[in-house]
Amino acid sequence: DNIRKAIALFERATAADPGFARAWSSLAAAHLTLPTYSGEPKDVHHPLALGYAEKALTLDPSLAEPHAVSADLLRFQNRWSEAEQHYLKAIELEPGNATGYLWYSEHLGSVGKRELCLENAQVALELDPFNAGSNSMLAFGHELNGNMDLALKQLQVAWDLGHPGAIFLM
């Protein structure tokens, strides 16, 4: 529900100011993540996410988030090298943004780069220690690297912070 409310607010913001690149960018990220947390169809929301990310980059090419959105969309299509280029661009443009590291860590885990997955998950957590997703991803990184004790501890933190999938991993 929070993501749906965010979408409505970002839609109002873009209607009020069509040149507000960050609102388009956030609208892209909201449409990207909504299917993960709601079960709504990706084939409805992902094309919207791509369009909004492209609009944001047209308005402000220095934004990191639309690159991260584009990267995730490419990852979902198994276009690994193209996705990696966008993740790295997002991190380069905004190295203090935890989302770029978090989503890149997910990508690295998907392609079997265990150590890099863990390293990027740790950076994401350092930048945003109360992000339930970053805590969950760090747990996954520990699991990939064979440290189940740390993985379970980190999953408990993710659960305590409200990550909806953490219970299935514990």
Topology:
Layout: H1 2-16, H2 21-38, H3 42-59, H4 65-76, H5 80-93, H6 98-110, H7 114-127, H8 132-144, H9 148-160, H10 166-169
Architecture overview:
With 170 residues, the chain is mainly alpha-helical. The chain is 79% helix and 0% strand. It contains ten helices and no strands. It is globular, with a radius of gyration of 16 Å. The chain starts with a helix and ends with a helix.
Briefly summarize what is shown.
The chain is mainly α. The protein has helices at about 1-15, 20-40, 40-60, 65-75, 80-95, 100-110, 115-125, 130-145, 150-160, 165-170.
Distinctive features:
globular; 170 residues; 0% strand; mainly alpha; 79% helix; 10 helices
Which percent range describes the beta-strand content?
under 5%
Distance between the termini: 25 Å
Mean pLDDT, to the nearest integer, reads: 94
Radius of gyration: 16 Å
- Strand count: 0
**H/E element string?**
HHHHHHHHHH
Give helix % range: over 70%
Shape: globular
